[in-house]
Design brief:
NAD, Rossmann fold, 2 iron, 2 sulfur cluster binding, 360 residues, binds 1,4-dihydronicotinamide adenine dinucleotide, heme binding, Globin-like, Elongation Factor Tu (Ef-tu), domain 3, alpha/beta, heme, 11 strands, iron, 5-stranded parallel sheet
């Protein structure tokens, strides 16, 4: 991996070129424009390599990946084709260290990786659809670039508050982006998302500026482990930046529904007052629940960033922490929380790599 990581772009371009030349029938499983797709493969391989000695984490990751591939139309027989082209690309760009032993090791690793993915997809087929269709039932523009969308899935969609899904719009076929659910599971089965249109974000711009009630989108399976642990009653310290407030609102609703009276402290950060697009909802929740404290944190010309605000309160040593927002905020948020003494295993957040491709 250290040989190929510096030339990751070339390896992936060559890999897809090989794949589409040797197996043209597989081209239709991928989006027309391959730019974000390209680095997903290497990211997945790097993640697998990083956790190679941590079987439970690696298996869990690969099972999710296998289940997540069902919505693309991936089948078991596609895996050997991918493996052969992957090894073709790796051997070309790692030629200085590639030998029979390396190749045998990669064949073994790839075979194991793909088998875990294939088995997870097969098990999932027995209990869940490959994807869900969902109809947009309401679309509310909260600021010039943030919309709250409510959709009705065509079949029941089980998930936990704090999780996210992948979403495809009719305007950009086969381009999937991740969005967190902005509400706990509702009795009417509807799902809500907060979407911010980001520059060059095709999916997010379509969802904010184009989607209307009646449009049909597709959803992949739920994913993510940033969920409330109902086996303890420790407090929740929630740090949400921008549309990162969405899963936090869902978790607050979840705590409320469980009738628990554990302290929940929410820091809701935004670049300006105007960007606190969901503050009314959060303050309403605070009024309804004495155990909930909501603190808006607005950047003062970059002087006070969201993570800094947490240090002004506390102590937090009895709390589980949840961080959600832009990747840079998650990184500095996690650092700040560790600094104030919260152990890493009590800090939850979604994978920053997944969010880089998340758009909004
Ligand atoms: N589950 C999750 O973690 C979720 C993540 N998101 C992500 O949240 C982001 C939302 O974007 P916007 O609303 O435009 O956020 P934004 O850029 O307006 O920032 C929101 C807040 O985070 C702070 N912040 C931003 N970058 C920071 C950094 N490097 N260090 C410290 N603080 C920082 C800002 O000061 C502000 O208070 C998107 O990238 C989206 O993918 C959205 C929903 C759920």
């Amino acid at each position: 991996m250290s040989e190929v990581a510096p030339v990751a772009d070339k390896v992936t371009s060559y890999f897809y070129a090989l794949l589409f030349v040797r197996h043209p029938d597989l081209r239709s499983l991928f989006p027309a424009a391959m730019d974000t797709q390209r680095d997903r493969l290497l990211k997945a391989l790097l993640t697998a390599a990083e956790h190679i000695d941590n079987t439970p984490v690696l298996v869990d990751y690969l099972q999710n990946l296998g289940r997540g591939h069902r919505k693309y139309g991936t089948r078991a027989e596609h895996y050997p084709a991918v493996g052969e082209c992957l090894i073709g690309a790796l051997s070309k760009y790692a030629s200085s260290v590639w030998d029979g032993e390396t190749e045998a090791a990669w064949v073994r690793a790839y075979t194991t990786i793909s088998q875990v993915m294939i088995d997870a997809a097969a098990a999932d087929e027995l209990r869940a659809p490959a994807w869900w269709y969902a109809e947009v039932v309401s679309h509310e523009l909260r600021t010039s670039d943030v919309a709250v969308l409510t959709v009705r899935p065509d079949q029941p969609y089980p998930f936990l508050a704090g999780q996210y899904t992948s979403l495809e719009t009719p305007w950009w076929p086969r381009i999937w982006r991740h969005y967190s659910f902005a509400s706990a599971p509702r009795s009417d089965g509807l799902l809500t998302f907060h979407v911010k249109a980001v520059p060059a974000g095709w999916v997010s711009n379509a969802l904010v500026h184009r989607a209307r009630p009646g449009d049909i989108i597709r959803l992949g399976p739920p994913a993510g482990s940033m969920t409330v642990d109902h086996t303890t009653d420790s407090g929740l310290l929630c740090v949400g930046g921008g549309t990162g407030i969405a899963p936090i609102k869902a978790m607050v609703e979840d705590v409320a529904e469980h009738g628990e009276r554990r302290p929940v402290e929410v820091f809701y950060g935004a670049r300006s007052n105007h960007d606190l697009y969901d503050i009314d909802t959060m303050l309403r929740l605070q009024q309804a629940h004495p155990w909930l404290e909501v603190r808006p944190v607005v950047d003062r010309h970059g002087l006070l960033q969201l993570p800094d605000a947490i240090r002004e309160y506390g102590p937090w040593n009895e709390y589980d922490a949840y961080v959600s927002g832009p990747p840079g905020m998650i990184r500095s948020g996690v650092d700040a929380l560790r600094d104030i003494g919260i152990p890493s295993d009590r800090i939850r957040h979604d994978s920053v790599e997944e969010l880089v491709a998340a758009e909004g």
